[in-house]
Specification:
Blueprint: E1 6-10, H1 14-24, E2 29-35, E3 47-54, E4 57-63, E5 77-81, H2 85-96, E6 100-106, E7 113-118, E8 124-129
Parallel strand pairs: 1-4, 5-8
Antiparallel strand pairs: 2-3, 3-4, 6-7, 7-8
Domain PhnB-like: 3-127
InterPro entries: 3_dmu_93_MTrfase, Glyas_Bleomycin-R_OHBP_Dase, PhnB-like
Protein name: VOC family protein
C-alpha cells in the first residue's frame, strides 16, 4: 500500500508553523528537517521538506521555492477532537492569535463546544469537544 501523508506548503514559514503546532498538542514532535543551502532554489535555511507528528499522526511540510498567489483554504482543515474544554479553549486561543475566527467558540448543536479558526499561517483548524 502506498503511504499517504498530509503535506502543508508554506512560503517561508514552515518551520515556525511546525514548531507552534508541535508545542500545542501532546505526543507531537519534529521528526526530520531538510533545508535549502546557499545554492537554492529556495531561500537558504528554509525548509525543503520536513516531517512531524501531531498527537501521533504524521504530517509533512515545506517552504515553496516558487512564489504563488494561493494559500490554504478552510475547505480543507485539521479537525481536532479535544478531551477537555480547557484543552479546546487553550488551542483556540493559541491558534487564533494573529489568525481569523471562522466560527467563534460555542454550542452549535452537534457538540458541547466547537470553534473554527484560520491560524496566522492560513491553516484551518476545527476544534471540537464531543458530546
Amino acid at each position: 500500500m502506498p503511504e499517504i501523508t498530509t503535506l502543508l506548503m508554506f512560503q517561508g514559514r514552515a518551520e515556525e508553523a511546525m514548531t507552534l503546532y508541535t508545542s500545542l498538542l501532546p505526543d507531537s514532535e519534529v521528526l526530520t528537517i531538510t533545508r535549502y543551502g546557499p545554492e537554492g532554489p529556495g531561500a537558504e535555511g528554509s525548509v525543503v521538506h520536513a516531517t512531524f507528528t501531531l498527537s501521533g499522526q504524521r504530517y509533512a511540510c515545506m517552504d515553496s521555492s516558487q512564489p504563488h498567489d494561493f494559500t490554504f483554504t478552510p475547505s480543507t482543515s485539521l479537525y481536532v477532537n479535544c478531551e477537555t474544554e480547557e484543552e479546546l479553549d487553550r488551542l483556540y486561543a493559541a491558534l487564533s492569535e494573529d489568525g481569523q475566527a471562522l466560527m467563534p467558540l460555542g454550542d452549535y448543536g452537534f457538540s458541547r463546544k466547537f470553534g473554527w479558526v484560520n491560524d496566522r499561517f492560513g491553516v484551518s483548524w476545527q476544534l471540537n469537544l464531543p458530546a
